[in-house]
Amino acid sequence: MNNSEILFIYDAKLCNPNGDPDDENRPRMDYERERNLVSDLRLKRYIRDYLEENGYEIFVTKPDGKTVNATDRLKLLIEKSNKKIDLNKFKEDDVSWLLSQLIDVRLFGATMPIKSDTAKGSSLVFTGPVQFNWGYSLNKVRLVDSNGITSHFSSERENSQGAMGKDYRVYYSLIAFHGIISASRAKHTMMSDGDIKLLEEAIIKAIPLQATRSKIGQYPRLFVRVEYKDNGFMIGDLRDCVEPDKVDELREIDDFKLDITRLSTVLRENANRINKVYFWQDEKLVTKSNGNEGRFDKLINLSDDMIQEIKY
Question: Organism's domain of life (predicted)?
Answer without folding.
Answer: Bacteria
